[in-house]
Design brief:
Elements: H1 2-13, H2 20-36, H3 49-75, H4 85-103, H5 112-166
Keywords: Membrane, Transmembrane, Transmembrane helix
Transmembrane segments: 24-42, 54-73, 139-157
């Protein structure tokens, strides 16, 4: 429960661009979950304790995966294409650069290097915030996808393990080689 709360707080308190520290938090939470949480023995049925634990486990793992991937998703065209959005964010950055120039227009003649630096900073921040906002909108989909994969993997693994434990003779004695 504490892990889920930490993940939710990461989302709630995150402002601006997804930084690499979020990936560290996500990976750390994943390590804690994998190390300390065990699903109960597999039992069939959607109302079983196993199914309820599996849903909670899968969703928390999916959330941690989403947090861990957020910085890479924000920065990678390949992982999160966001058709049209990346171009729109760059245009927003150009607009912010022009706004900075307009607001500091009377200083431009004194120090053009400082103006260029201020424009670069404003452009970068505007693009990063725009991409972070879009990334945050898509993260639930990535988290849900990870949760489905984790759930399917856990069910497959647990069912196979239950079959092996129930019928050890079917696998025959192991040979040493």
């Amino acid at each position: 429960m504490g892990i889920g709360l930490a993940a939710v707080l990461t989302f709630a308190l995150a402002e601006g661009s997804w930084e690499w520290f979020a990936a560290y938090i996500g990976v750390t939470l994943l390590a804690v979950i994998v190390s300390f949480y065990r699903l109960p023995p597999w039992t069939p049925g959607l109302g079983s304790a196993y199914a309820q634990n599996l849903v909670a486990y899968s969703l928390v793992v999916g959330l941690c995966v989403a947090i861990a991937l957020a910085p890479a998703l924000q920065r990678s065209t390949w992982l999160l294409p966001m058709p049209g959005t990346r171009g729109e964010c760059r245009e927003l950055g150009t607009y912010e650069s022009l706004r900075t120039e307009a607001s500091l227009g009377n200083l431009a003649s004194r120090d053009s290097a400082a103006l260029a630096h201020a424009q670069d900073i404003q452009r970068h921040d505007a693009v990063a915030d725009c991409l972070a906002s879009t990334t945050t909108r898509w993260l639930p989909l990535y988290g849900l996808g990870a949760a489905v994969l984790v759930g399917l993997g856990a069910v497959s693994y647990d069912r196979a393990r239950t079959r092996r434990e129930a019928d050890p003779a079917a696998h025959g004695p192991r040979r040493r080689g």
